[in-house]
Structures are given as C-alpha cells and as structure tokens.
C-alpha cells in the first residue's frame, strides 16, 4: 500500500444542488480526502518540499469549492479529483464529500470516489 496524506472534515460553502431553491444560496459541504503518494523522502529529509503539503491542498480545495457551481456533489468530486491529480504530486485520491442536512432524517449523505492519476496528468 502506498503512503497517504489525509485531510478530514474540511468545510466550505458552495452553490450546490439540483433544485431551484438550492441555486439561490450557498450550502455547507464537508470534504475528507486521502492523497496517495510516497513519503519516505520527506521522512528522511524533514523537508516540506518532499511531501504533499496538506495546507496547500486545503487552500486550493476551499478556493475551488467557494467559487464552484454544480448541481450534483458527484460533479464537484470529479472536478476536485482532476485538480488534485494534475496539480499535486500524488498517484491517486480518495475523496468523500458530505452534504450534511440535505436529508433531514439522515445523519449524513454524500459520495466517495477514488481516482488514479493518468499518464496525461502532470505531477
Ligand atoms: N447522489 C446524489 N443524490 C442527490 C444529490 C446529489 O448531489 N447526489 N442532490 C440532491 C439535492 O440537491 C438534495 O441535496 C437537496 O436536498 C438530491 N439527491
């Protein structure tokens, strides 16, 4: 198994939803992600440049989420996975997006996707 950098419970507000009333407001989404990479060089060198900086990833994700306009959380997840795979030095990402409160009778709802880096995606 590859090494992992993870981010849990990252919260942002965005325009998301399929219904007309949802297009008029911003709703909270919560993101959990696992970034698959190799960490041995960073562990040996103690150098941030040798790893995936979870602060940089968090800032990039929240910046995108804040200006995004999608209907489905699947679409937000797909777009974010493409950004992460093309802009950061990772081999794969597992991304979970929750939309708390979307179904009042459920504790939580959301999607989880796993995407691998393709040969076209730079690192
Ligand atoms: N699989 C999904 N199901 C639903 C979504 C979604 O994004 N993915 N969205 C909605 C509505 O926008 C809902 O959140 C409104 O409460 C319904 N189902």
From TrEMBL:
<dbReference type="InterPro" id="IPR006156">
    <property type="entry name" value="Dihydroneopterin_aldolase"/>
</dbReference>
<dbReference type="GO" id="GO:0016853">
    <property type="term" value="F:isomerase activity"/>
</dbReference>
<protein>
    <recommendedName>
        <fullName>7,8-dihydroneopterin aldolase</fullName>
        <ecNumber>4.1.2.25</ecNumber>
    </recommendedName>
</protein>
<dbReference type="InterPro" id="IPR043133">
    <property type="entry name" value="GTP-CH-I_C/QueF"/>
</dbReference>
<keyword id="KW-0456">Lyase</keyword>
<dbReference type="GO" id="GO:0046656">
    <property type="term" value="P:folic acid biosynthetic process"/>
</dbReference>
<feature type="domain" description="Dihydroneopterin aldolase/epimerase">
    <location>
        <begin position="5"/>
        <end position="115"/>
    </location>
</feature>
<comment type="similarity">
    <text>Belongs to the DHNA family.</text>
</comment>
<keyword id="KW-0413">Isomerase</keyword>
<dbReference type="InterPro" id="IPR006157">
    <property type="entry name" value="FolB_dom"/>
</dbReference>
<dbReference type="GO" id="GO:0046654">
    <property type="term" value="P:tetrahydrofolate biosynthetic process"/>
</dbReference>
<dbReference type="GO" id="GO:0005737">
    <property type="term" value="C:cytoplasm"/>
</dbReference>
<dbReference type="Pfam" id="PF02152">
    <property type="entry name" value="FolB"/>
</dbReference>
<dbReference type="GO" id="GO:0004150">
    <property type="term" value="F:dihydroneopterin aldolase activity"/>
</dbReference>
<keyword id="KW-0289">Folate biosynthesis</keyword>
<comment type="pathway">
    <text>Cofactor biosynthesis; tetrahydrofolate biosynthesis; 2-amino-4-hydroxy-6-hydroxymethyl-7,8-dihydropteridine diphosphate from 7,8-dihydroneopterin triphosphate: step 3/4.</text>
</comment>
<comment type="function">
    <text>Catalyzes the conversion of 7,8-dihydroneopterin to 6-hydroxymethyl-7,8-dihydropterin.</text>
</comment>
